[in-house]
Design goal:
mainly alpha; globular; single chain; Hypothetical protein af1432; binds fe (ii) ion
């Protein structure tokens, strides 16, 4: 079977050049590792929770975008970065995608916008992005307690393993 060009590729074709243009090598490495890691985990969690492959695709896009601005401008990681990242994603990527519906784009935007609200439970899609973010931070260093001991991580790991 031939490889397909999907709408996820449309999103990556806009996201990858932004990452590639980051001139600080450490920030660029961090962007690839974390953004692709969260995208992958978000896609997995969506499928594990019984959602469709289309939803997994949206989760992957939201994961790849959720912190993009943080790596581009190397800003402080504050709660407000989620809102700024959402607006950056909208202007630089989401507004240029033609294969996604307005509803899909709004869901991606919301997942990015709310990803720092980890102490509260929100919309199911937003929760996928928050959980994926937390899991990527945890699994890149399973011995570190900072993320591992949180109730959110314990719950997601119980779900996955
Ligand atoms: Fe993140």
């Amino acid at each position: 079977m031939e490889r397909q060009y999907t709408r996820l590729d449309e999103a990556r074709n806009l996201i990858d050049p932004i990452i590639m243009s980051i001139d600080d090598e450490e920030a660029k490495r961090g962007a690839y590792v974390h953004l692709y890691g969260v995208g992958l985990m978000a896609s997995l969690l969506a499928l594990k929770r019984g959602y469709s492959r289309e939803i997994a695709e949206l989760a992957e896009v939201a994961g790849m975008l959720h912190d993009l601005l943080t790596y581009v401008d190397r800003a402080e990681d504050t709660d407000d970065h989620a809102h700024k990242c959402a607006d950056y994603a909208r202007t630089h990527v989401l507004d240029h995608l033609v294969q996604f519906s307005d509803e899909d784009l709004e869901m991606i935007y919301s997942g990015i916008y709310h990803h720092s609200d980890k102490r509260v439970k929100g919309h199911w899609f937003d929760e996928i992005i928050k959980d994926a973010d937390a899991v990527q931070h945890t699994l890149r260093n399973p011995m570190e307690d900072y993320f591992f001991q949180t109730p959110r991580i314990q719950q997601v790991l119980n779900e996955l393993i």
